Amino acid sequence: MNTAEVLVRCEAAARTYGTGANAVVAVHGATCEIRTGDRIAIAGPSGSGKSTLLHLLAGLEEPTTGQVTWPGQAGKPRPDTVGVVFQGPSLIPALDVVENTALPLVLCGQPEPSARRRALDCLALVAAAHLADKLPEELSGGQAQRVAVARVLAAAPRLILADEPTGQLDRATGRHVIDVLLAAADTLGAGLVVTTHDPRVAGRLTQQWSMRDGRLQPDPDAFSPSAPATPQGAEP
């Protein structure tokens, strides 16, 4: 029996956009648990529902039916419990890089000087400390993504959710970002979920799930030789 702490639980969670004939089901009744120590890759093509599932796990979207819960957490998750690395641009234009990185800490009540020191340490982890005083508009897509990773790590969350974190990075930088995410998850004792279409990225994580047409399921073509983990209630 797996005795690791459950960080988030989906029970038949579905997400539909629109109504009637225009309704689009992005996620069909996903049932799964993410625990401390989990290292999960969710593979699938664009439009398969990976990002929507991550948003449900993060509490950023409400399920249309079913439920998502965070055991031991009262209400919605905070940045220091669940951190999200978004696929698209997510930095606040008016704040420089170090201010963007420190923002989750400040929102959680940490004094600005200590939040800034923590932010600079995390920027160094992703080789972005030299960008500290730049505004988001001065960054390349890859640089902005590294800063987004540092911002999540700064809050030391229990669960890290990364949506295609290497999609805008060259191979070497992408490999380094995955190194940092894995090391941070180990240090924090956190769970880590990464969505990706890159077999090299998926192969770095110990469990593989897939999304196909909005359905969470075990992947018969898992990227690593180890057997994929099976989400609870997944369709065969």
From TrEMBL:
InterPro entries: AAA+_ATPase (IPR003593), ABC_transporter-like_ATP-bd (IPR003439), ABC_transporter-like_CS (IPR017871), ABC_transpr_LolD-like (IPR015854), P-loop_NTPase (IPR027417). It comes from the Bacteria. Residues 8-236 form the ABC transporter domain. PANTHER family: ABC TRANSPORTER RELATED, IMPORT ATP-BINDING PROTEIN. SMART domains: AAA. Keywords: ATP-binding, Nucleotide-binding. Residues 211-236 are annotated as: Disordered. GO terms for cellular component: plasma membrane. Residues 219-236 have a biased composition (Low complexity). The lineage of its organism: Bacteria, Bacillati, Actinomycetota, Actinomycetes, Kitasatosporales. This is ABC transporter ATP-binding protein. One of its GO terms (molecular function) is transmembrane transporter activity. SUPFAM superfamilies: P-loop containing nucleoside triphosphate hydrolases.
